[in-house]
Amino acid sequence: MTMGTSQLHSWLLLGFGIGLVFGIRWLALRVVMLMASGWRPVLGKLTPHWRRTRPLRAWVETRIPRTYSFARNRFQPRPFTGLPLTLLTGALAYVFLLMGGLIEELLEATELHAFDQGFNAVLQPLRTPLLVGLFAWLTDLGGSAVLVGVTFVSTGFLWADRRSQFILPLWVAVAGSQLTTWLGKFAFNRDRPEFETFVTAPYASFPSGHATAAMAVYGFIAYALVRDLSGSRTRERFEVIFWSLVIIGTTGFSRVYLGVHYASDVAMGFLVGLFWLLVAFTLTEYQRANRN
């Protein structure tokens, strides 16, 4: 492949990727706006069905009052210790199970290894000098230096904005995700792929520290930005969340594209980051509920 053909190939891939991102954004925004405008009528249709269960609920309450009271309190929508905490606890349990399943696949070292090798093989012909340089720059968004700076700057802004209840959870997400990542690296000691580009990395491969940190830090910053937006600003919330996901996803993909991680390393990194992100959500909302 000549240099001119390689550059043309790179620009075409880059243009396709950018177009795909904006296409997904356009579609997702339409879906979100449609859902935002239509959820109240749906809930209104469900209300009569819920009222019909009142005799059954009364019967259960008389038979097992303590159990019924506990279950009812867990599904109350208003207090944080009700439905919000129940949903967050369920999400934490689900992410933990996904992490366990991925670790089990890693220990079996059969199908997961074959998938990782196949995914790297697919990317091999797509690695061009232009895109390698671009992703080498983008991957620094998940690097320790950048994320430490982002965390300190975010802490300063949160303190200045008198939103100190976000600061401790932010650092819990950062510290917890990094500690878990390093424990995983030393516990599994997975070898990295053979380096395909000029980008190299020390230490073990599983899980990806860049993916973990990007999910925990950028995810929490997005949450802090949208948490106190007024209810009518659905589009602003969408934009913050969508572009934060783009940054997180791009950072994770860059590690595989540059050949310093397997796809499963990045997947586990995202799960570890998401787990600690949910822990940070829970801690923040608990503090806010007690403050109010």
Describe the structure.
There is one protein chain. The protein has 292 residues and is mainly α. The chain folds into two domains: 1-39; 87-291, Vanadium-containing Chloroperoxidase, domain 1. It is 79% helix and 0% strand. It is built from eleven helices and no strands. The chain is globular, with a radius of gyration of 23 Å. The protein starts with a helix and ends with a helix. Its EC number is 3.6.1.27. This is undecaprenyl-diphosphate phosphatase. One of its GO terms (molecular function) is undecaprenyl-diphosphatase activity. The chain crosses the membrane at residues 12-36, 82-103, 134-159, 166-188, 208-226, 238-260, 266-286. It is an enzyme of class 3 (hydrolase).
Brief sketch in words of this structure:
This protein is mostly helical and 292 residues long. The protein has helices spanning 3-52, 54-63, 65-74, 83-108, 111-123, 129-138, 144-160, 167-188, 209-227, 234-257, 263-291. The protein contains eleven helices and no strands.
